[in-house]
Structure formats: structure tokens, C-alpha cells
Amino acid sequence: QVQLVQSGTEVKKPGASVKVSCKASGYTFTGYYMHWVRQAPGQGLEWMGWINPKSDATNYAQKFQGRVTMTRDTSIGTAYMELNTLRSDDTAVYYCARGPMIRTPVGWFDPWGQGTLVTVSS
Amino acid sequence: QAVLTQPASLSASPGASASLTCTLRSGINVDTYGIYWYQQKPGSPPQYLLTYKSDSDKQQGSGVPSRFSGSKDASANAGILLISGLQSEDEADYYCMIWHSSAVVFGGGTKLTVL
């Protein structure tokens, strides 16, 4: 079955960086966009951007431009999201989610990874 | 003003119907957008429910019961998620989403209580 499995909980200090991984299985990794969405404690969903695993193209939400980098390793079907210069308000659960098929401009997110809690605290 | 506005909470009784709204900001016409709906239960990631753009352009998520359906209220410039025959398991947070200006936007979510 289609599945996304993310890396484990992270605790970071302000100013540090975090890199979260998302391993895909059950489908052609390069056939679908991969999106990243975060959710602060008790808050709603916030879209961060996407990566096209086939071309390596990316599109980041304006809020995160300059601070986020999305990459992928097609040999192991894994996407990564790295967030730099962490602040306390970056504390959140970070999700990867499979987006629409490549060459499809819009579509839904399904499935989602289980989430990775990133805590930023001094 | 947020792009998408959802009521923070809604309560309904088992067996009844619940209508969850997702209002688009003035100047953004709901007619031109597909509205995506997700359900999230505590401690779990969101799950895709359905997409609604029009009666002829809609999609139901895999395994999602038919008692979940989408529609629009053009006069209110809003997308609607209708849940009929409410069950206790429907108690969850519900989020709407659109693609807008090459970006994805989520509504703030509605906490549905079934009591």
C-alpha cells in the first residue's frame, strides 16, 4: 500500500537546523509531487512547499523562502525538508504528504506521513 | 483577512447532519476553485475526504463514506462539507484547502463535536 514514513522526533536549540526525512513506498516516487505541511501545537495546518521528485524543482511558501530547503534522493525514494535558523515558534509537527501526479497542476494530498515533532527550545 | 475562513467549532447530534463552511475572502470567487476537505483526529495526520468544484467535477477519497459530500454556496462565496447521519467517529477537526496563486492555502479548521 502507499505509505510515507517519516523520521523521528527532534529537539533543537534556537538558531539550529533540522532535517526531516520522508520515505515513500508503494508507488512510483518520481510520479507525484511531495508536499510539506506543518502544524503547531493546538493550531491549524500550514503549507510549506513542494518538491517535484522527478525534476528536483521546488516551490516554497513565501513565508519560508530563504529558510527551507526541500530535496530528494530518488535512489531510495526519500524526500527531505530542512529548516534553518530555528525559532521557538517553529515548534510543530511536520508532515510530508503525497500531492498530485507530476504534470497535474493541482490536486489533493493523500496519504500523509505520520508526522515528525520538532521542538525548538533553549 | 484570511484567504479561507472556517468556524472554529460546530456541534451536532448523532444521526443529524452537519454543514461545515469554508468561506473564501472577498475577491476570490469560489466558482473558480476546487475545494479540498480533510479530516484530522487527535494524534493522527489529516486524511483526505473529498474534492468539490462542481457537480460534474468532484472526487471522493478512497474509502470515504458517501455520507460525506461537498457543495458550494455561491451567494456566500463558500465551500461546504456536508456530513449526514453523524456518528460519534465523525468527531474531529476538519480543514478546507485551495490552490491559490501557485500556493496551497488551508482554512483554520473546524472542530466538530458530536453529542
User: Can you give the mean pLDDT of chain B?
Assistant: 97
* Cα-based radius of gyration of chain B, to the nearest Å: 13 Å
- Could you name the ranges of chain B where pLDDT drops below 50 across 5 or more consecutive residues? none
Poorly predicted ranges of chain A: none
Mean pLDDT of chain A: 97
Structural class of chain A: mainly beta
Helix content estimate of chain A: under 10%
Q: How large, in whole angstroms, is the Cα Rg of chain A?
A: 14 Å
Query: What global shape of chain B is seen?
Result: globular
What is the topology, as strand order, of the major beta sheet of chain A?
2-10-9-4-5-6
- Work out the strand percent of chain A: over 45%
What's the tally of helices of chain B?
0
From the structure provided, what is the oligomeric state, counting identical versus distinct chains? heterodimer
Provide the structure class of chain B: mainly beta
What letter string, H or E per element, gives the SSE order of chain B? EEEEEEEEEEE
Helix content of chain B: under 10%
Q: Helices and strands of chain A, in N-to-C order?
A: EEEEEEEEEE
